[in-house]
Structures are given as C-alpha cells and as structure tokens.
Design goal:
The chain is 44% helix and 18% strand. It has 259 residues and is of the alpha+beta class.
C-alpha cells in the first residue's frame, strides 16, 4: 500500500524520529515510551504509528506495544547489502593514511568462528609496508587487531578463547600469559584502543580501535600497522586519537549510537 502524502512539512522528521526509536530501542515498546524517547507528544506518536502500520513498517506486539514491522526489516536488509562495511570504511581509512602515512587495515569480526578477518587495506606511501594476509581467519588473543575485539566480547567467550590460545604467530615459543592479558583487556576498554608490538608479526607495531554495530555489538576494528623502527612512543597518543575518531565515525555509519 502506498503511504499517504504528508500534509505537515515536519511529518517526515517526526516519522524518522519514531523509526529511530523503534530501531534502537527494545524489541517492543509502548506509545508513552516511544514518545518520551522521540521527544514528541503521545498524540503525535499515535498518529505516526497508525500511518506506519498501514505500510507494514510497524506492527502491534502483545500488551499494547509496538515493534518494527516486516517491511521495515526487509528494506533495512536491502539497504545494508548496498552499503557494506568495507565500502563505508574506505574513505575513513584513506583519510587516516593521508594523515599519518601508515598502512590502515579493516578487520571484520566473525562471530560464529570467533575469529577475525582482514577485509580491506590501504597502504602507506613508504616503500616498506606491512604485508597482510587478507580474508583468512585470525585468532583474537594475539596482536592489536584481535585484542581490540576480544576486549568487548562477553566474559565467558573471552575465557573460552584465552583457555584455547595458541602460541604467538610471531614467535612459536611464546605462550600466552592469561592473567596479564586479562589486565590488558581492562586497559583496552578503558582507553578505547589496543597497542601491541611484535605479537603477530616480527618488527611491527599495531594500534587498533573497535568498530560497533547497533546495540553495541562489536563488528570489527580499524588498525594502523607501523614498522618498529618507524614508531616513536610519543606518537601513540596522536595516532590513537585519529584511529578512535575514525572508528567512531564508522560505528555511527553502522547504526551504533555513541553514549
């Protein structure tokens, strides 16, 4: 059914506000709760919901509640397919490389495998660059790319992955110090980024910040990788701030609302 043309020029803004609340909030909500979150009168929200139910964007839930309808879900899935994470991330990665001239990587978290895969890379202009193995599974317990995801997983998943940790990819004789990693994960959550040196690749420093989807689910990360001879400790703060800002912008593009 074709929706009725709005007579109020601000009706589109109100419609967007209600849809945003429905998408970002609990699975089913009352009119009063939607009105409060959208900062709209209850009568206005009731009218908007009635109109959206005609198009299938909203449906009733038990207990006089409302939830996202099948048509809204269908269109959202189609839109997500057209704007995948690598496509969204590339402009931000290009800006990062332009600002710091170091290789930038986009890591994608694979929840079923509980692994990471690198899916996009922008090289620095230096002749000596980081050679990354793209699209292959990586564990989460070594290196900045893995730890910046592991830090935001549920505790039980963290413990499971730590218990099964393999030796360092950069040094097979180096085993994981689980207690030390737990402390590092707390620091990563506090600072908003991970930094490691020679954990995954000999001679490389990695700095990575997490990227989130809606509902604060970790989607992956953005990472800068730097040869150790080119990295200076005083550069950490500046590079981390650039990386965190880019990761937050990408997270918003994926539907994550910053606190």
């Amino acid at each position: 059914m074709t929706p009725r043309a709005p007579s109020d020029p601000r009706s589109g803004i109100r419609l967007a506000a209600v849809l945003r609340v429905l998408a970002e909030g609990p699975s089913a909500q009352s009119i009063s709760s939607i009105a409060e979150r959208a900062e709209l009168p209850v009568s206005t929200v009731h009218r908007v919901l009635e109109q959206m139910m005609e198009t299938g964007f909203v449906e009733r839930a038990p207990g006089r509640l409302y939830r996202v309808g099948a048509e809204f879900s269908r269109l959202g899935a189609l839109a997500a397919q057209k704007l995948n994470i690598a496509h969204l991330a590339r402009p931000m990665m290009e800006r990062l490389v332009a600002e710091c001239n170091e290789t930038c990587l986009l890591g994608l978290y694979l929840p079923k495998a509980r692994k990471l895969a690198l899916v996009e890379k922008i090289d620095s202009r230096y002749p000596l660059r980081y050679m990354a193995n793209m699209y292959v599974h990586r564990n989460l317990v070594w290196g900045a790319t893995g730890l910046s995801i592991l830090a935001w997983l549920p505790d039980d998943q963290q413990e499971e992955l730590l218990a099964a940790a393999p030796p360092s990819p950069a040094n097979a004789s180096r085993v994981l110090d689980v207690a030390a990693v737990r402390k590092r994960l707390e620091l990563i959550r506090e600072r908003g980024y991970a930094i490691t040196s020679c954990e995954r690749v000999q001679g490389a420093v990695g700095i990575a910040a997490p990227v989130f989807r809606a509902q604060a689910q970790v989607a992956g990360n953005l990472c800068l990788t730097i040869p150790t001879f080119r990295f200076e400790a005083h550069d950490e703060k500046r590079l981390a701030e650039l990386l965190i800002a880019a990761a937050r912008t990408l997270s918003r593009s994926l539907g994550h609302a910053q606190a």
